[in-house]
Amino acid sequence: MTQLITDEIRTWIGRAEKPIRFEVSRRDIVKYSLATEQCDEKYLRGDEAPPMFLYGADRPPTAIQDLGPDGLRQDPL
Question: What is the pTM of this model?
Fold first, then answer.
């Protein structure tokens, strides 16, 4: 049987990135909530961020033509 976790993947165990700090306002949460159709009142008040909010919170605004099929900015390699 082949291993599910390769030796290459094992080299990633224990690695960590430095923490990133940035400010998030209630307005940021409300805008994201509206854009992603998260209509629970707690999101629309900005009391709580919807799921997946932080995965894009530190990304810069990007023009639609610069987005890939997955909706993310295509960073040059």
Answer: 0.61
